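WARN retry 2 of 3 for item q-0093 after timeout on previous attempt; input resubmitted unchanged.
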Amino acid sequence: MFNFAAPKEKMKKEKTDYADYKILLVDDEEDIIEFLSYNLKKEGFEVLTAFNGEEAVKIAKKELPHLILMDIMMPKMDGMAAVEEIRKIPALDNTFIMFLTARSEDYSQIAGFEAGADDYVTKPIKPKILIKRIIALLRRSKKPDKKNTSIERANIIIDPLRYVVIKGDKTITLPRKEFGVLYLLASKPNKVFRREEIFHEIWGDDVIVGNRTIDVHIRKVREKIGLDNIKTIKGVGYKFED
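OK item q-0093 returned
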């Protein structure tokens, strides 16, 4: 899986492009935590650690990491349950979550995205590739905020500053990717967005996600907002019908 013999020499604390980013590692295997911590710190990241999901939720709530790297099979609270709890915390709406797990089944990956993950990576994976995927996610931080312009469509207000949707007197908070998909579609009503366009705009070219990912995000947006304005164009993609 990994070569866990992490070098013992002292690492110089130099300012890097990633020195301001905080990553929470969550795994019940101490050798994995030690090995990944070493590699991430070497890149300049600040690293926090937790050994089960329950501990991860507490640390995440207190420290507000930029990214959480989460295992699934853990004691006390597994990774799926932990992610679902984390996604209920408004202060962590902009935190990326990446599963790193030996569970490679399709249903596990779908469940991971449904729980609120931004990426799902299966073991074994080389540390350098893992770090590149982490950096690719962090580069997309707050992507919908570029315009900072609220959109009003179909009796809802989509606010990119707060990642919320206002429907009547109800304020609905969405995870970043779900909000990004909604904001993209609503920004150009009645335009059909091909799946490739949505992948490129929301996930970028450096992140590989399964074919069901967009379907899962669209379904969750429809359920949470309670609108049927997002239409499926079979074999092509989606559009927001205003």
